[in-house]
Amino acid sequence: MILILAPDTDRESPQYHEMLDHLSRLPGVTARVHQVQGREQTLTEVYLLGNTAALEESEMAALPCVERVVRVSADYRILGRHKDDDRAAHFAYNGVDFSQDNLHVFAGLCAVDTPEHVDQTMRAVAEAGLSCTRMGAYKPRTNPYAFQGHGKRCLPWVFESAGRHGIKVIAMEVTHDGHLEEIHDALEAAGRPTGVMLQIGTRNTQNFELLKHVGRQTDFPVLLKRGFGITLEESLNAAEYLASEGNSRVIFCLRGMKTHLGDPHRNFVDFTHIPVVKRLTRMPVCIDPSHSVGSRAASPDGIMDMMHATAQGVVAGANMILLDVHPAPQKALVDGPQALRLEELPWFLEDVRLAREAYERRRDLAQRFLAEQNRQ
């Protein structure tokens, strides 16, 4: 059961503490408080876990500060969509709104290599009109001898460059809990010129202790990639691990499935699951065409497979795109063969704009049709 409190509820008020005191006395029930920063106000939700079937909705709705009660009707208790639950699916972070209705492009370096490449990429991203990027400082690799990333040593280059070019959010993968402290300390040392979205990679989707640790912090939102060899349900439950620990600002990323059925692409593209995730949960959905396709191969029409896959995801309603770009792909230390050159970024973004326009027209058509059906 979820108790939705009145907007901007004062957590120091007597009424708020009276409500919590009442909940603490419920037998077999644990209350967890979650705050969601919206565009204009802070929303507080209380999740009741345990023996909630015996609770009367009317009794819970009468508690101080409670505006509405939602009876959980799905496995994903916090992130899921429930019966008669019309809460908006969005959150704001460092001046950027993330929702199931908008679209952001995070174009950047899969792996940070040199300060010059970082700055060239940040400049190109800003000049293209984007406010977000990706920068890999920590790189888990299949081969133990492959480049593992510069780690905390490169964080000052990244954060200072982001501040110079007005980049608001950087998606950055972490592989163990120590990375969170390194990122936090480097941001503080730089004067917090930007924000970070922590990324949980596909290899760590079921690293439950890492999920719990990342979920307990609320400084940074989280981008969770689908596990490359597990079911969609298992990956959505991984996202629920994050939310159950306190951080519900989660974006779910589809990045392709590991199977030779997708050959010659690097992974089997799974972007048809975008509407499924949006139907089952309230999370915005990201796509990673770079790692799904894994090459710059193009068809006779001149359009790269990676751009075709991107368009398919955007037409299906994707809310975020994670894209590899590099000033000199042939010199990239990780995944150079799949990276776009910086001069190709405007072409890519225009192609995305066309696909997004098609999605919006399809959405509007569906809404008009349903409205007409309801009038009949």
From TrEMBL:
One of its GO terms (molecular function) is transferase activity. It comes from the Bacteria. Residues 101-348 form the DAHP synthetase I/KDSA domain. The keyword Transferase applies. The keyword Transferase applies. Transmembrane segments: none annotated. Keywords: Transferase. This is DAHP synthetase I/KDSA.
